Amino acid sequence: MESIFFLVVAAVAVISSILVVTCKNPINSALSLVMTFFCLATFYVMLDAPFMAATQVIVYAGAIMVLIIFVIMLLNVRVETVKRGTHAVIAGSAIGLFILFQTVWFLMKGSMTGKVGDMTKEQIVSVGHVELIGKALFTDFLLPFEVTSVLLLAAIVGAVILAKKKI
Amino acid sequence: MLAIENYLIVSAILFAIGTIGVLTKRNAIVIFMCIEMMLNAVNLTFIAFSRHLGNIDGQVFVFFVMTVAAAEAAVGLALMIAFFKNRESIDVEDVNLLKL
Amino acid sequence: METIAMPAINLAVIMPEILLSCIAMVLLLVNVFVPGNNKAYLGYLSIIGLAVTAASAVGGWGPSVSAFNGSVVQDNFAIFFKVIFLISAGLAILISDRYMVQEDCNQGELYPMILFATVGMMLMASGTDLMVIFLGLELLSICLYVLAGWNRDNLKSNEAGLKYFLLGAFSTGFLLYGMALTYGATGSTKIQAISSYVMGNPGVASNPLFVVGMLLIAVGFSFKIAAAPFHMWTPDVYQGAPTPMTAFMSAGPKAAGFAAFIRVMIFAFPMLRAEWSDLLWILAVLTMTVGNIIALSQDNVKRMLAYSSIAHAGYALVGFAAVNAEGAAGILFYMLSYAFMNIGAFAVIILITKKGEVNGNVQDLAGFGHKKPLLAMVLSIFLFSLAGMPPTAGFIGKFYLFSAAIKAGYVWLAIIGVLNSAASLYYYLRVMVFMYMKDPEEDFEWAGATPAIAVCLLVAVGATLVLGVVPGTVLELAQKAVQF
Description:
heterotrimer, A: mainly alpha, 7 helices, globular, B: mainly alpha, Helix Hairpins
């Protein structure tokens, strides 16, 4: 049952990600990308990470994609008419496929490391996923957490400087 | 639970499709979307490993990747708007000498 | 609900980072609330801030202290690099004022952005958790995308920002994928834990999962330090970005890339040094050769310096390929001297470019030597140092890098490096030929140096010569810094 469900979601994810690349209209690409993001959120649920699934939908499909679609509308991006030079397509696809084969080959050959942590499904259910992540964020990863605040401030200032009409 | 390799292979496929998109598309916004797809593929890898290892670190990493992706989106789209104001186009082939 | 036990927090370890981000935020507020259009004073305030930060960073010199559950460390290696970053940020700020006024750019937020970028670089050097290194790198990159596109009304600058952004984010994807696979293979993102896992399980070194993860991390870092074949963004970005920012990008962030690269490769994977060596010398040879050969045919001085900066990354990689203490110390010394000589050269370029013209062509320099003899001499010193002629810092730096390679058995690698240096003489000397031996086609008056640029030039020339003549003390410090 689970494997059938996985196959369906995986097929949808791959097809919609191919559509992102092949669609001529950027809006279609953006909508296909939202589809891919939802499929990934489904995977996260299947991997017992419900909080990450929610964040995926809220941050990616919600915030980032809305921003992208907003910019597409604002700039009134026209449909791609001229094809990129065929040599670029061939070279790009070759590099991409090479990466794919290499990675998959390594993954198939690679042996997995055994369990190192103590996070189990029972624990996730009993303690709660959000609590687990929150605890990790405020203990082990306190410094990275603080660094993100500086990063977001710098990004806000930078975006305003670049896009504001009159400073 | 399904074997972890299934998730890893799906994420490798998504990563490769994203790479192909970055290298073959000409519209800067679509290229940016393909980059987001690559980052998402990485996120899937992280969460799959996190589940497999029984270790929350990978999910915390995903948390930070999402934050960074949002910050990058803000800055990148601002750059595109600034470029569009001067050029009225965001095709990368109009970006002089941009040989990808 | 159990209470969360907070880990021991040692703020002293990240004091320089805290100080510098606070100063940057204060400057942002000062910029908003203090009226007036002349923002030059913000630059001087940030120089003071950088000096205070440098003092606090140097104060930690000594045995290494780790904090935040092993996410960050204060060791001599990080401190040496932090000083390089702070110096390059300070020199870049000194030369920004005149350029930004000339190009009608917004100045108020420029200095805080440079300071934020510096915080990112410092975190890359001191981070011992892949997450901290990644976030430091992103903080740096996001600031640099903005700084490259700072001149909003100039199409070249827009292009530079957009191109840098797209390729930077693309390379981040590879870096992250590599980190994910490494995490999967070793079960941790902390360099200490990865290292001890690899020590405890030698089998993991040949685990394909781990190997491909390491390769992808290497690809990601190679993008950031502009090593061939991942250098294609460099020339356009360096040429299009505002000149002071080009100077900054070529000195600080490149050093930061090396700091993180060395930290990850040598600290986390001590077992794999032989494998690294093989990968790195190929990278070094490619990078030196590609950078120098293309630089030979450049007419634009900024673009020429961009290709030369690729070549210089190649020289530093020679020391990296040696994977011994001498090589690492050589990189530290070389990055320090490169910051001085390269920012100095760009400072002179700022003085010779007219408003709106991003292209300072080599032909524009005709007659410069006779009209501005002092500036021309200063530029010649920088170019000699970049070419690696004694008695300048560039010579000593290259000498140590190449001798480290010879010590590690890579004699022919050192020979290729020396041949490349000889080839690079041609394009550096060509600039001097134009300065001293050609007559100008049109009458053109170059503006004089402002006090800030004069200070920058003075410091840079002084350091280039002092490091070239009496390198002993700094080299000793560099050697102490790499005793892991």
